[in-house]
Specification:
This protein is α+β, with helices and mostly antiparallel strands and 654 residues long. The chain contains 16 helices and 31 strands.
Length: 654
């Protein structure tokens, strides 16, 4: 399975459009057509027909090249930001928290204000709640208020009220704050049609966010120790059918200055340069408003008061399954985790929802942890640093025809005749133009080693061929992975036993170079599920077929403390101890993930039906849980969180 390196490189991962037809639709992008949808307009006496853009069955030749008639206008996007009262959204989400606690949560950019990379309020465009400014911008954009019904109209676009579909999960938490936001937009004359869909569809491999199937879409990113962001905000990270949906920039935001600087911020070891680059990205982001950052989430957890061994800390707080071998509840042989969102698959290269990572880590373990924002190796033998000799950063001569990473973090083939002139950083760090003569650049070579004695749950030791398969699958462009940024930066990969050495492209100066970028799959495992690959070893299966193999998606084999014994969709995932786990033997024989209805989750915990509710199932504090914790019946824990809610704006039609 994929380890956690790619998660950190990309910096973020998903947490829980319309539901068009059946889930699992073909991986095609539909051409835009106009349809009419009947809706009940608040305050109106009759239902209205609203003109909306939706999808036809056939794919367009080039996808997402038609600007959205409303959301492509930056004035409209800025107006939506001004019409958003973030303080009221926080209050709706966390009614039992103090005003002081809630005041710390609203966000202005995609980087929390406490981060070293935050640009500062004075250096960005801040959107305080100001519906008058929002209204003025909408007027400028041609959306005039009709005093009779309170809605805005723009005859150049439609004869219908300004209407936008807003899609998010069906989690109670989001239903609560989304209803408040809908009213805020209504006060600005904008009709919002909310659509709450299952997380399995919203974050599916071929549906929802992955296919950019929304106009306005809300979900959360889990911020990591390092801001990352290249896969979210670079022009090259916009997913389309033509690039097999690679990248997470589903807004379609392409601001070249921001794109160049987000790449620079992720391609230098000099922190001052990273800070300056992130400042520019945030300036452009807040000016263009491709997304409305809302607030940091308060990560609540609640568990059985007898639950021992659970360790939650800043940095790894949102990945509490990092040490399940230490978990135990006196007198119990089975610990039950309550999930209100079920993973659609554990093939996290494609299905990268938060719940998939949490469920998968029980099986895979982690290459490293980042508790308290301090990286520590686990399956990785050591952090591969220059200081301990596992990495080198040497001067090399590059010439015309060589592939390098330029000063903006883009991969280029050196060509003196290129237009515009190619600029690279020489070995001193100075930016120079490539005019044909050889230039000295920095090149990193890093050896990543893994601990000895790791075995898969069938007793077969982890071997070199497993690491080779992990690299092959992760970097195969037909797999449909979320991103290939890391793969594309590799000049050469060589494998030896339980290690591999990566020679990165000249100019690649990844600040997180010391974290192993690729994991493994059990190359020896024979496919037993029905289909064309039955009887083949995984090493013989085409990587593009991994997305449909139960041996990968629902019953993966790995070296972590547990293995899956049964997964009944919609009900539970059962785990038992991996008898060959290389670490300390797990203290609890079985773990079960129980899929529970959101409205029943707290009752299940209090009745003893589940032993833990995590931050996805318990996204707000209820009076019931607060009273139970005060009475000593459960443990209620608030973890410092870098997870943040936002509303993404898709600026293009299919």
């Amino acid at each position: 399975m994929l380890r956690n390196r790619l998660l950190t490189v990309f910096g973020l991962v998903l947490i829980a459009s319309m539901l068009l037809g059946a889930c699992g639709a073909p991986a095609t992008v539909a051409a835009p057509v106009i349809v009419k949808e009947t809706v009940v307009v608040p305050g109106a006496t009759q239902p209205a027909q609203i003109v909306v853009a939706t999808a036809a069955p056939e794919a367009a030749k080039l996808s997402f090249t038609t600007p959205h008639p409303i959301l492509s206008d930056v004035k409209v996007r800025q107006a939506l930001a001004y019409c958003t009262n973030k303080a009221d959204l926080v209050k709706a989400a966390y009614p039992l928290q103090s005003a002081e606690q809630n005041a710390t949560l609203p966000m202005n950019t995609f980087i929390p204000s406490t981060s070293w990379a935050y640009a500062g309020d004075a250096n960005i465009t801040v959107y305080p709640f100001d519906p008058a400014k929002g209204a003025a911008l909408l007027e400028e954009a041609g959306w005039k208020l009709n005093a009779d019904d309170g809605f805005r109209y723009n005859p150049a676009v439609s004869d219908q009220p300004m209407t936008l579909h807003f899609t998010t999960t069906n989690a109670k938490f989001r239903q609560t704050w989304a209803a408040v936001w809908e009213k805020q937009m209504l006060d600005c004359g904008v009709l919002i049609i909310r659509q709450h869909v299952p997380a399995s569809w919203w974050f599916g491999a071929q549906t929802g966010v992955k296919r950019r199937d929304y106009e306005l879409g809300a979900f959360a990113w889990v911020g990591q120790t390092d801001p990352g962001g290249q896969d979210l905000y670079a022009c090259s990270s916009i997913p389309t059918v033509e690039n097999a949906w690679s990248g997470q920039n589903a807004m379609g935001w392409c601001n070249q200055l921001a794109s160049d600087n987000i790449k620079l911020a992720n391609n230098t070891l000099i922190k001052a340069d990273r800070t300056a680059a992130y400042k520019i990205v945030q300036q452009e982001f807040t000016k263009d408003v491709p997304s409305i950052p809302l607030f940091n989430r308060a990560s609540y957890y609640a568990w059985n008061k007898e639950f021992a061994g659970l360790s939650i800390a800043p940095g790894d707080a949102d990945y509490y399954t990092w040490n399940p071998e230490a978990w135990e509840i006196k007198g119990k042989t089975n610990i039950v985790l309550g999930f209100t969102q079920e993973p659609s698959s554990l093939f996290t290269l494609v299905d990268n929802a938060y719940v998939a990572y949490v469920a998968g880590q029980l099986v895979s373990g982690l290459a490293y942890t980042s508790q308290n924002y301090d990286y520590q190796p686990r399956e990785q033998k050591q952090l591969a640093t220059i200081e301990n000799g596992a990495a080198t950063n040497v001067d090399v001569q590059v010439k015309a025809g060589d592939k390098v990473v330029d000063s903006n973090g883009n991969i280029v083939t050196l060509d003196a005749a290129a237009s515009p002139v190619q600029k690279i950083k020489d070995s001193t760090g100075a930016e120079v133009e490539f005019k044909g003569d050889p230039i000295s650049m920095k090149q990193m070579t890093v050896k990543y080693e893994f601990v000895d004695g790791m075995k898969f749950s069938d007793g077969v030791p982890l071997a070199q061929e497993d690491l080779e398969l992990g690299y092959k699958v992760t970097c195969d462009k037909e797999v449909g992975a979320t991103s290939y940024i890391t793969c594309d930066m590799v000049q050469k990969a060589t494998f030896s036993g339980l290690s591999y050495t990566i020679v990165w492209l000249p100019g690649r100066q990844d600040p997180l170079y010391f974290l192993a970028p690729f994991g493994w799959y059990p190359a020896h495992r024979v496919v037993e599920s029905e289909g064309a690959n039955k009887g083949k070893k995984l090493s013989e299966v085409a990587p593009k077929d991994f997305i449909s193999l139960p041996e990968i998606t629902t019953n993966p084999m790995d070296v972590g403390p547990y293995m899956i014994t049964e997964w009944k969709k919609g009900e539970f995932i059962k785990y038992s101890v991996n008898p060959y786990f290389y670490g300390t033997a797990p203290k609890t024989k079985n773990i079960t993930i129980l899929i529970v209805a959101p409205e029943n989750a707290e009752a299940q915990l209090l009745a003893g039906g589940v032993d833990l509710l995590d931050t996805t199932s318990l996204v707000s504090l209820s009076q019931t849980l607060k009273d139970a914790a005060d009475a000593g019946k459960i443990v209620l824990f608030l973890a410092p969180s870098a997870t943040w809610e936002h509303i993404d704006i898709n600026m293009w039609l299919k």
